[in-house]
Design brief:
- By secondary structure, the chain is of the alpha/beta class.
- The chain folds into 2 domains: about 160 residues, Lyase, Ornithine Decarboxylase, Chain A, domain 1; about 260 residues, TIM Barrel.
- Strands 4, 16, 17, 18, 19, 20, 21, 22 and 23 form a 9-stranded mixed sheet that branches. An 8-stranded parallel β-barrel has the order 5-6-7-8-9-13-14-15, surrounded by 5 helices.
- α5 packs across α6 and α8 runs parallel beside α9.
- The protein is globular and about 70 Å long.
- The protein starts with a strand and ends in a 14-residue tail after the last helix.
- Bound molecules: ligand LLP.
- Belongs to the Orn/Lys/Arg decarboxylase class-II family. LysA subfamily.
- Pfam families: Orn_Arg_deC_N (PF02784).
- It catalyses: meso-2,6-diaminopimelate + H(+) = L-lysine + CO2.
Length: about 450
């Protein structure tokens, strides 16, 4: 998919670049981002919204993969950006991302984070709870600012891949509950706060979703709420944000819908509900993360050791693992992989791909079909663009890999490989523990 293919040498090529050359130039493990595919996904969202005729913002959920180069691409593609911490905000600001197109999320924004965002002139805060509502108003008042907000509501729709459920009351750490009246009370309080301007509401129903029904259900609940709020409180929502969650294909059996179908389901439902209510059509925002970058990422590893337990299992170990991709260990997530340097050879054996961390659970793929792998072969694991680099750690003091963006035969470094000096950069030996100087 994307620009990936097998070239004449039988090597995996991405963005017109031979991955064996990438391994030589940048080393492994290496995250490779197919830039054309990221841009294609971005434009699929934008085009689908344009087709609806509604006003919109597509805010890339940078939590999926927040690095400055990615912010630059998001800007060029006309996207907005969703950030959830001072770190993600700083990354966006350092990349020169237009601050008015940044939305600030999170269920425990600290006063420092709020002040930083206010000083930067952020476009919108997505307010999560009553404490934040009043804190934000007070901090904005101190600076003489009026800030645009959305209120995050918990619509009582929960979606997981194939199943979605509608619950009256939802046990979630996020947002104001719709069913128990908290959402309405929050809007009432927000209207009364002088330094806040309520644009509308936000709802996010889950991640890696393959169906549109959950989104339709959420739109219905939010639409009913819009009617109630306009009738009872006289506020008309200008913006409705439906969050992210659009699924991608990791392995066979994953059946995501085309992006246009997710967007179409949302915009159709909005148009029909708001037209029926004789309401002005709101602006629609979404926040895709995984579906923007997930399938554009590939991680390249070198196979370093192998171990066969006759009659049980063969392990091959790669030079990364749960430190660069914690998803299999955390969520039992599945991935597909091939030998990048022998990409058109037939599969001959079944192996389990182990990482190098000192932890038995550090297995990237269980029962992967491969040609008979040799030490030194390159393993390419697909669909690692989202929540991989973003969730990478230094467990065992393993260094985070480099990230390269490839496009039209060119490979450019987007994140340097961590150095050993990076590993100890923040360490301090307190004076009383230091060796006596001679
Ligand atoms: N908006 C909000 C408010 C969210 O909480 C999330 C994801 C998104 C947007 C983006 O959702 P996406 O389009 O990426 O599904 N670490 C997990 C995923 C956590 C998702 C958290 N929130 C994983 O690796 O699967």
């Amino acid at each position: 998919h994307g620009t990936s293919k097998i070239n004449a040498k039988g090597h995996l090529e991405i963005g017109g670049v031979d991955t064996t050359d990438l391994a030589k130039e940048f080393g492994t493990p290496l995250y490779i981002v197919d830039e054309a595919l990221v841009r294609q996904r971005a434009s699929e969202y934008v085009e689908a919204f344009k087709a609806s005729g509604l006003k919109f913002q597509v805010a890339y959920a940078s939590k999926a993969f927040s690095v400055m180069a990615m912010c630059a691409i998001a800007e060029q593609e006309g996207l907005s950006l969703d950030v959830v911490s001072d770190g993600e905000l700083y990354t966006a600001l350092q990349a020169g991302f237009p601050v008015e197109r940044i939305h600030f999320h999170g269920n425990n924004k600290t006063p420092d984070e709020i002040n930083m965002a206010l000083e930067a002139g952020i476009g919108c805060f997505v307010v999560d709870n009553f404490v934040e509502l009043h804190l934000l108003n007070a901090l904005a008042a101190e600076k003489g600012l009026t800030v645009k907000i959305l209120l995050r509501i918990t619509p009582g729709v929960e979606a997981h891949t194939h199943d979605y459920i509608s619950t009256g009351q939802q046990d979630s750490k996020f947002g104001f509950d719709l069913a128990n009246g908290a959402a309405k009370k929050a809007i009432q309080e927000a209207i009364a706060l002088a330094n806040l301007e309520v644009l509308g509401v936000h709802s996010h129903i889950g991640s890696q979703i393959f169906e549109v029904d959950g989104f339709r259900m959420a739109v219905d609940k939010v639409s009913q709420f819009a009617v109630e709020i306009r009738k009872d409180l006289g506020l008309t929502f200008q913006v409705i944000n439906l969050g992210g969650g659009f699924g991608i294909r990791y392995v066979e059996g994953d059946t995501p819908l085309p992006i246009a179908q997710y967007v179409g389901a949302i915009t159709d439902a909005i148009i029909s509900n708001f037209t029926a209510a004789e309401f002005p059509l709101p602006e629609i925002w979404v926040e895709p993360g995984r579906s923007m970058v997930g399938d554009a990422g590939t991680t390249l590893y070198t196979i370093g050791t192998a171990k066969e337990i006759p009659g049980v299992r063969k392990y091959i170990a790669v030079d990364g693992g749960m430190t660069d991709n914690p998803r299999p260990a955390l969520y039992q997530s599945e991935y597909e992989a091939i030998l990048a340097n022998r990409a058109n050879e037939a599969n001959e054996e079944t192996v389990t791909v182990a990482g190098k961390a000192c932890e038995s659970g550090d297995k990237l793929i269980i029962d992967l079909e491969l040609p008979k792998a040799n030490i030194g072969d390159l393993l390419a694991v697909f669909c690692t663009g989202a929540y991989n680099y973003a969730m990478a750690s230094n467990y065992n003091r393993i260094r985070r890999p480099a990230v390269v963006f490839v496009k039209d035969g060119q490979a450019d470094l987007a994140v340097q490989r961590e150095s050993l000096d990076n590993i100890v950069a923040n360490d301090v030996i307190p004076a009383r523990l230091r060796k006596a100087e001679l």
